[in-house]
Design a protein that fits this description.
Layout (H helix, E strand, L loop, with lengths): L3 E5 L3 H12 L3 E5 L52 H14 L6 E2 L2 E8 L3 H4 L2 E7 L2 E7 L1 E4 L6 E2 L15 E4 L13 E5 L3 H10 L5 E5 L5 E2 L10 H5 L2 H9 L2 H4 L1 H6 L12 E2 L3 H5 L3 E4 L2 E4 L4 E3 L4 E2 L4 E4 L3 E2 L9 H4 L19 E3 L9 H16 L8 H16 L13 H12 L5 H7 L1 H9 L18 H6 L1 H6 L12 H42 L13
Parallel strand pairs: 1-2, 1-7, 2-3, 7-20, 9-18, 10-11, 10-18, 11-14, 12-13
Antiparallel strand pairs: 4-5, 5-6, 8-19, 15-16, 16-17
Main location: endoplasmic reticulum
Cofactor: FAD
Membrane topology: Single-pass membrane protein
Amino acid sequence: MAKKVAVIGAGMSGLSSIKCCLDEGLEPTCFERSNDFGGLWKFAEDTKDGMTRVYKSLVTNVCKEMSCYSDFPYREDYPNFMDHEKFWNYLREFAEHFGLLKYIQFKTTVCSVTKCPDFCETGQWDVVTETEGKQARAVFDAVMVCTGQFLSPRLPLESFPGIHKFKGQILHSQEYRIPDSFQGKRVLVAGLGNTGGDIAVELSRTAAQVFLSTRTGAWVISRSSGGGYPFNMMITRRWYNVITQVLPSCFKNLDKQLQLNHEIYGLRIYKFHVSLPTCILCGKVTMKTSIKDFTESSVIFEDGTVEANIDVVIFTTGYEFSFPFFEEPLKSLCTKFMLYKHVFPPNLERPTLAIIGLISLTGSILAGTELQARWATRVFKGLCNIPPSQKLMAEGTKKEQLIKRGVIKDTSEDKLNFISYMDEIAQCIGAKPNIPLLFIKDPRLAWEVFFGPCSPYQYRLMGPGKWDGARNAILTQWDRTIKPMKTRIVPTSPEPTSLLRYLKVWGAPLLLASLILTYKSSLLLKLVQDKLQGRVFPNRVLWFIPQSP
């Protein structure tokens, strides 16, 4: 009899969790409190239902080839970066293609998720739901929580002295939809994440003036690289990841420093963001330091400057993730800090509960959550193992104490390296690409895997969940990238330009390969030299082996 799995939430991670359950022969039931799937990607004109939704002008920050389900590429005519409507359409195509919608119960809220009395033996959960005022109870063999990290707006008003004296309008970015109502107003946007920058840029076209306050700043990077290709595809590569892992920190952000002098824009510090320099150049957005105090109509900043006649303050201060259906102590242990590999709570005798999507990555969240779901479903089936709860709790408690004592830094809010995290989870599944083996069996594919974009298809090349179309998807990803831009025929580029393009694309990989070969050759030569000198001819000078100066 197939194990029954409760999936909470039908957003992009919920849909992948349903599919992964089906792939492993499990029986999923998904509970979605709204009347449609897609989570925050299902746009709504208002926020009356209390759910977080995308604002109307939102465009994805990760290009399509780097942010797709690993066995379901986008159609080639889809743009590389898309608005919320096109992205939701992709989710719909995915759900319909794999027949996922019939497993979703809409307008159903999960009230509680508690351990069954015999949990130590069975690992089962008692799930209480409510649909249109009627409650139901069911027992499940496992639970996948896919509610994401954008549930409750974080609005720390108590951290802003004088905020209660302010007579203007106060909003959280969750309430923002369109810029029309801000026509002619002086608006302060507090916080410079992706959302803060997007809202400031959009409001600059309608508001009288926009002020953008930040404590830290941001790296400003374009969606396109110097050659016009999607930036994600050019930078998220295995060879580049290897280099950045060993480079000193002062070199790691060199590419961003070369793109823009961040200091003169008042932006520089270590976060990532989309482009807004043009609005700053035009004076429509003014960068400000962190907020010190409020008056009835003015804002005082940490550097002593004052901006008067502020009509609206929009806080883009993020969200609090929460699990209201859990009881303590489970609720407190479902945090980024305590979750094993950001998926499994550490205190459960049976690993039958997985938190999917509670991660921040330098790449695609969609790709990350899909791989988490693949791993979790195999753990549920007993095909993959995790350490015992006693060990996980001990490690978590020790780490917590070290952080409190200041011995180590709390990195739970930092973005995880995309390739490193994906490889780590794929290793647990047995789906991590074996690049040395690929170079032997399929050199062309291996070259693209190591030197080309680290797209999600790579995690379908081998092991459990292998997809026969993965190789072709990797080798044709550039075709799908270029296709939507080929909307008119232009004369063939002259040969020098073509040569320059090849140098840009292949120059860095060739240089890296040369350096690796040179380094390995020198190591091998030294090893042979040492062996011969120390073991074969310990008392002789080997005149036929070149000596280092």
